Each structure stands twice: as structure tokens, then as C-alpha cells.
Amino acid sequence: LDTFFGTRPRCGADHNIVHQLCEPLVSTMPPDTGGSDEDVMVVTPNTVSGNIDYDKLIRDFGSQQISAELIERFERVTGKTPHPWIKRGIFFSHRDLDMVLDTYAAGKPMYLYTGRGPSSEALHLGHLVPFMFTKYLQDVFQCPLVVQMTDDEKFLWKDLSLEECHRLAFENAKDIIACGFDISRTLIFSDLDYIGTMYPNIVKIQKAVTYNQVKGIFGFDDSVNIGKHAFPAVQAAPSFPTSFPHTFGSRVDVPCLIPCAIDQDPYFRMTRDVAPRLGFLKPALIHSKFFPALQGSSGKMSASDETSAIFCTDSPDVIKTKVNKYAFSGGRLTVEEHREKGGDLAIDIPYQWLTFFCLDDERLKRIGDEYSSGRMLSGEIKAELIKVLQPLVAQHQFARSMVTDEMVKTFMMPRPLRLS
């Protein structure tokens, strides 16, 4: 563990705060109990693998479960129906979401912040999930949104040229715009282009976080490039409203809500720790579960493995082939056994994907009941998923085809955004 997460300091105040910040990450990697390496849960900003226990992540990371009471309050305060992903527990954990609702109820401004690391030409469906949900949140709160394109991060971590990372940021922005964001309330920015505006906040964060803290939180060792050590402050900076002076000026009282997968939480635990010392509000977060790969639910899908994902560029025939050939089934070995015992919804990828993309609760329940009882076979539930995915991807492709380079430049132009 010391090798993977970096050596903890052994003296003074640094030791205490490093222990608080990095202990949750360490505890996601339990000691050897005789199981296979594939069973061991690892959740870090750069690695997700093993059998994911989300209740344990809540305990270890120190976040809060999104309760039925909070969902009811969300609906009462906003006047909007909670998204199916909230009701189904896909977005399952939060930090200070109740405080954001207080701000909204008081009629005060707030903003959303999410991001994308542009390392591939095409996004897959797992990449779209946070943007689809963020679109819903923007519609609910009618608030500004900032989208960070971390082209600098991908240059530091991947075997890509700086120019290619910058180009991919521009191309990926088209997929984000295709999700339907309000252009009057949305700024998409490349770190390489915008970092000068954020730099005062970046250096304040860097001064407030020690080298040993970064090593402990993110697992860096002394062999990695110094850019990786510096980058967490870059991802933290958009959490503070003065990083966007065109919209917020010098205001420090505008709260930020960050929808993200829970593996990104370490960045924002660090951010929340330094925020009060720098005179800012702590950013609030709402965490999603991981979108599983086609081959199984351990970890999340990867853009580097085309057979693990449905891409936004896939044709209807490719989607059908991938689902039928690669989607891990919770069905039984024989038709007779399946009719008797039914399918296992907990491991069946077609059903799990339907919980994301079949937004009709009654239809999803019917499919789940039919499949788990054995009345629906594995091929039939795959056919149900195909019927959902093909029009979803086709609709996204059409929307993306309507996004011009000029539209991208407008979304990426620093300018005043409409407030809540």
C-alpha cells in the first residue's frame, strides 16, 4: 500500500491531514483474504476494478447516501420529478446536496461543474451518463454550467501529443453540446486555453496542499512526472466561482454542485479540505455508480477496449452485434434451467444497462419480472436492450451532426453566463 499510495509523512500536522484524506482510498483495497485479485475492490481516480461495494464506498469515503427523504425534498423544493437515475439509486451518494437545495429554495445563484478527459475520438455511452444527468440538473436548477476539458491531464497521463489532446477536446465538445445544454448558461473550456484565468486559484490551492498529501491521496510515487503532482489543483479550481470572473466576478458565496462518478471523489475531498482556508464554500457533490462494461459489472467500461462499450459512433448493426456477442448474461446454462430458476438480474448486463437507459419504470419492471421468473430468455432481454440503444445512439448522432465548429467556438468562448 505504501508503494501504491506513496509514503505517508510521520510527523507534525501534515501526518494528521494526510491520514484523514488518504485513509478512505487505502481502505478500498482490503488485505488479502485468499480471494482472487479480480475480486478485490480498487477505486481510485485512475483505477476501478474488482467487485464494487457501494455501501462500503460510502462508509470509506465519508459521503452520505441519497435517502428517500432527500429525494422527496428535492422534488418539493424544485417542483420537478426526480430523475429515474436518482430514484433507482444510480446516483446514490452525495456531499451537501441538502445545502444546494437550501440555496435554490432561497432564490440564490449556484452553478454546476463537470468535465471530460479527451483521450479518444468518440465517446461511449458510459461517457454520456454524467452529461445526460447534468443536462437534467441544468434544466431543473436553470443555472450556469462549466465543463472542464482536461486536455492537459490526458497529455500528462497518456501517450498522446499535446496538439492531439487539444484537438480531441474540441471534437469531444461536439458530443457534449449534442446533449442539449443551454448555450446561454454553459461554458465548455479547454484547460490549455483557459488556465490563465484560473491560475490565481490554482496556485492558492497548490500552496495549501503539501507534496505528501498529493502522494497520499492519489498514489503518486517519485517516478511520475511533476505535472501529475500539480494537476489535482487544476481540477479543483473550477469548484470556486472566482475561476469564472466573466459570470461571478469576485463573488465567493456562489455554491458549486459537481455531478461525477464516485472514483473522482478524492479530487474533491482535497478541494473541500482547502476551500474554507481559502475563503470559499466547499463544493457539493452527487456521485454516480459506474456504468458497467459489456463483459461484466466489475469496474467500468474502457474507451481503449471497443468490445467493452457501445460508442456514440456505432451503427445499429454494430450495436446489435456487440450486445448479442459480448453482453454478459445472467441467464442459466440451459433453457430448462432458466425457465426453472430465472435470470440473475444482479449480474445480467443487458438488464443493468436497461436500468440506465430504459426510463419507463413500468416497462423496466415488466422486463425484470419476466426475466427473473424465467419467462423471458437471455436472447429476448438482449433484444429489449437493442431496441432501446439503437434509437438512443441514432438520436445522439443526429444531434452531433448539427453541431458546427462555430457553435463549439461559441460554447468555448469565455463570456457572462445567465444566472439562476
Question: Which SSEs are present, and which pair or pack?
Answer:
Elements lengths: L1 H4 L6 H16 L14 E2 L4 E2 L4 H8 L2 E2 L2 H11 L5 H4 L3 E5 L1 H9 L5 E6 L8 H17 L3 E5 L1 H7 L4 H16 L8 E5 H18 L2 H8 L7 H11 L8 H4 L7 E6 L3 H10 L9 E5 L27 H11 L8 H7 L7 H9 L3 H13 L4 H24 L3 H7 L9
Parallel strand pairs: 5-6, 5-8, 6-7, 8-9
Antiparallel strand pairs: 1-2, 3-4, 4-9
Structure in words:
With 420 residues, the protein is of the alpha/beta class. The chain is built from 20 helices and nine strands. The chain has helices spanning 2-5, 12-27, 54-61, 68-78, 84-87, 97-105, 125-141, 151-157, 162-177, 191-208, 211-218, 226-236, 245-248, 265-274, 316-326, 335-341, 349-357, 361-373, 378-401, 405-411; strands at residues 42-43, 48-49, 64-65, 91-95, 111-116, 145-149, 186-190, 256-261, 284-288. The strands form two sheets. A seven-stranded mixed sheet has the order 3-4-9-8-5-6-7, with helices on both faces. A two-stranded antiparallel ribbon has the order 1-2. α2 runs parallel beside α11 (211-218), α10 crosses α12 (226-236) and α17 crosses α19.
